[in-house]
Write a structure and sequence with these properties.
The protein is of the alpha/beta class. The protein contains 16 helices and 20 strands. The protein has two domains: about 230 residues, 3-Layer(bba) Sandwich (FAD/NAD(P)-binding domain); about 170 residues, no CATH class. Strand 1, helix 1 and strand 2 form a beta-alpha-beta unit. Bound molecules: flavin-adenine dinucleotide and NADP nicotinamide-adenine-dinucleotide phosphate.
Length: about 550
């Protein structure tokens, strides 16, 4: 049950560290915990490594952070040997990278695949978690690193008649491994977030007809993706360590920063060219041109204006463009999508947009989707309907701390954490890239490395001091959560009905979940806590 060579420190345990998830965070946790001499067991619901990139195999899936940044930094040789072929790698290439890492560092041998952690309860006397797997086995571990993803619990929308559809039904977040063809088919897609926006242009190329069911339009900026030629690759390699240093010192985990000047001190001509350059950087980076872009409505309005003109310049039909331009949120306060030909797709004769705000879905039938004004007959229906983000995965596991409260109960009024990493009442449990951490607002691979390293540091500290348990103090978690809240409230982010706010899940507490102070500021906060002997945590045996 334990790793190949290492036995747990305590014979009553199956392992020192149990890692949940074999995405980028889990793989790194297994690697790093093993390197410190811990015995490690990994549990993964899928049948192989990759996490997000294992499940989201839909056509057009790519990263929206450049691959040279969206990759591990912990091993210089890995960084040197793996050659990214494009600026934004495709899902198959990113999955191949995850597999390469698993092979190279022999990580699969620690995992039980096709297994799900269903529940876990903490035995205070033994200072250990008893972990219940969905198929019946139990494991005991001193520590749990929960690396089960912030965007790993897809939403199946509660639309009347969803099970009646007789055609092919697919979810972008559970896309099958077998090749899916659209040739000659009438395809419908529900959802116009980043996933829907990435796959629609590809489906439209071969489908007989593509019907896009849009409830809310989203801002999307072209990826300007391209191949990475050898000379550029050589330059990247020569400056990689500096690039990584800048990434860890940045707001978003990649070496891109805002222009530090006040926008109003810049004349209109220069402003326009800065917006143009920001647009050409591609995708989410358009949200980060000026410091106050997502804080001050007047600055945001200029960015919105610019984006709107770009969309209008592409979409030939003016009323269609009206429907495709968001009017309900400040640009950047929902994640800007990164597309390759999304708005162009609506110039095709075989593509129809159904504006669900005017013509809502009444039901799904055997034949397709019936909206208030029309029946849309379909051969295939695709759901790109998002995730119960940030809290949905951990609250679906029945974690019970010594007090007997579940995580779902503890977070009923919104997640409360210390640095995003630990939750009062749940000792020896680390949550990776969860609420209260920069999480989805930063390059998540570097975020996961930082989290795991910090968590392992706290474990070592606990053991070195002769303790077996550590837990976040309630007052410290309250203070951190209030801080996370306060900085979010100073921005326009809290005004958007986004999944960052939990607004995409009925009944979920509306609160801005990630820490928006920036990656570098967060690292400083973590380091300060460590420097003060892990202030805000309580140790016990
Ligand atoms: P995941 O990759 O989600 O892995 C978690 C794993 O845990 C999954 O394999 C899941 O099966 C498993 N699991 C969950 N619950 C259990 C359980 N109870 N028991 C056992 N196993 C369990 N981020 C970026 O920074 N840049 C990007 O470009 C980017 N693109 C994205 C594109 C898509 C389509 C999506 C959905 C997300 C994207 N993200 C991106 C966010 C992405 O989720 C993270 O970058 C990163 O891959 C997350 O890694 P992880 O290991 O934390 O979680
Ligand atoms: P999402 O952004 O939450 O989008 C879900 C879409 O489904 C929204 O358009 C939503 O409409 C719609 N929807 C949900 N339920 C519906 C219903 N019942 N009827 C009609 N429409 C419904 O999810 P996502 O596109 O999967 O993206 C989630 C996140 O994953 C992204 O923000 C990003 O962080 C990451 N991601 C990144 C990339 C990338 O480019 N690398 C690609 C995919 C995902 P409403 O907005 O009206 O609710």
């Amino acid at each position: 049950m334990t790793g190949p060579n290492i036995s747990p420190n305590d014979n009553s345990l199956d392992c020192d560290v149990l890692v949940v998830g074999a995405g980028f965070a889990g793989l790194y946790a297994v690697y790093a915990a093993r390197r410190l001499g811990h015995s490690v067991v990994g549990i993964e619901a899928g049948d192989d490594v990759g996490g997000t990139w294992y499940w989201n195999r839909y056509p057009g899936a790519r990263c929206d952070v450049e691959s040279i940044d969206y990759s591990y930094s912990f091993d210089a040789e890995l960084q040197r040997d793996w050659r990214w072929t494009e600026r934004y790698a495709t899902q198959p290439e990113i999955l191949a990278y995850a597999r390469h890492v698993a092979d190279r560092f022999k990580l699969r041998r620690h995992y039980r695949f096709n297994e799900r952690v269903a529940a876990a309860s903490f035995d205070e006397a033994a200072a250990a978690w008893t972990v219940q797997l969905a198929k019946g086995d139990r494991l005991r571990a001193r520590w749990i690193i929960f690396a089960a993803g912030s965007l790993s619990t897809p939403i199946r929308p509660d639309i009347s008649g969803i099970d009646d559809f007789a055609g092919e039904m697919l979810f972008t977040a559970r896309w099958p491994e077998e090749r899916v063809t659209f040739d000659g088919k009438r395809v419908g897609i529900i959802g116009t977030g980043a996933s829907g926006i990435q796959c629609a242009p590809i489906i439209a190329q071969t489908a007989a007809k593509l019907t896009v069911f849009q409830r809310s339009p989203n801002y999307s900026v072209p990826a300007f993706n391209r191949a990475l030629p050898d000379d550029e690759w050589a330059e990247i390699q020569a400056s990689y360590s500096e690039r990584r240093r800048q990434s860890f010192a940045s707001g978003g985990g990649s070496p891109h920063e805002v222009d530090p000047r006040e926008i109003w001190d810049i004349d209109e001509g220069e402003r326009a060219s800065l917006f143009e350059n920001g647009w050409k950087k591609g995708g989410v980076l358009f949200a980060k041109i000026f410091p106050k872009q997502t804080m001050d409505e007047r600055v945001n309005a200029l960015a919105r204006d610019f984006a709107e003109k770009k969309i209008r310049a592409i979409v030939r039909d003016e009323s269609l463009a009206d429907d495709l331009i968001p009017t309900d949120h400040a640009i950047g306060t929902k994640r800007i999508c990164t597309d390759s030909g999304y708005f162009e797709t609506f110039n095709r004769d075989n593509v129809e947009l159904v504006n669900l705000r005017r013509d809502p879905i009444i039901e799904i039938t055997e034949r397709g989707v019936r909206t208030r004004n029309a029946s849309h007959d379909l051969d295939m229906l695709i759901f790109a309907t998002g995730f119960d983000a940030m809290t949905g995965t951990i609250t679906r596991v029945d974690f019970r701390g010594p007090g007997g409260q579940s995580m779902a109960e503890a977070w009923a009024d919104g997640p409360k954490t210390m640095l995003g990493l630990m939750v009062p009442g749940f000792p020896n449990l680390f949550n990776i890239t969860g609420p209260g951490s920069p999480s989805v607002l930063t390059n998540m691979i570097l975020g996961a490395e930082q989290h795991v390293n910090w968590a392992l540091g706290l474990m070592s500290h606990t053991q070195q001091k002769g303790y077996t348990m550590v837990e976040a103090r309630r007052d410290a978690a309250d203070a951190w959560t209030a801080h996370v809240d306060a900085i979010a409230s100073a921005t326009l982010f809290t005004q958007a009905k986004s999944w960052y706010m939990g607004a995409n899940v009925d009944g979920k507490k509306r609160t801005f979940m990630p820490y928006i102070g920036g990656f570098a500021a967060y690292i400083r906060e973590c380091e300060a806590v460590r420097a003060e002997g892990y202030k805000g945590f309580v140790f016990a045996s």
